[in-house]
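Weekly modeling sync, notes
Attendees: AB, CL, MP (scribe)

Item 1: holo prediction request
CL wants a bound-state model with iron/sulfur cluster before deciding which constructs to order. AB pointed out that an apo prediction alone won't tell us much about the pocket. Agreed to run with the ligand included and paste results into these notes for async review.

Input as submitted:
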Amino acid sequence: MSGAVILFVSALWIRWSIHNKKKSSGIPEGLILYSDLNVPAAPLFSGRYRLTGKPDYILRKENKCIPVEVKSGKGSHPHQSQVLQLAAYCQILEDTSGVFVPEGILVYNNVPYTIHFDPKLRFELESVMKTMRASLRSGVIKRNHHEPGRCHHCSMRQYCTDIIEDSS
Ligand code: SF4
């Protein structure tokens, strides 16, 4: 197979698998502008807030750009930390595109939740970022939970000095 044919086939495969993933995971319809699903995408960066991140998708729907993050987990509703992660993606997308981002979508256990990026959530995000930056400057970073499972799956566990070991 020539290189061009291989590229064409892999592009078709990516489109097909994204389409199937969308159908099976409750992601609303819309034009996909960005996906970190099959091929790792370049991270987006907000110079204003010095924030970087990669949402699972960016959808274009009714002239809006909407970040989408897909999660699974215990419980029936998204966790607040996931809402804040999505809020950070909304902020990054707004800063990189220069266009107002009114909401994002959190698909939690195959159910889509529209999260409004409203003044309250913007304020909360900013206040969490301020707290995190102050902790980083002071060099004292305290754990904010008592859940061994979170530490068990945490990508920072090799660097963390406040880890809870899972005793089960
Ligand atoms: S390993 Fe450290 S950074 Fe990760 S969840 Fe546990 S306490 Fe937090």
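Recorded for review: Residues 143, 150-151, 154, 156-157, 160, 162-163 surround iron/sulfur cluster (CB under 6 Å).
Action items: CL to compare against the apo run; MP to circulate these notes.
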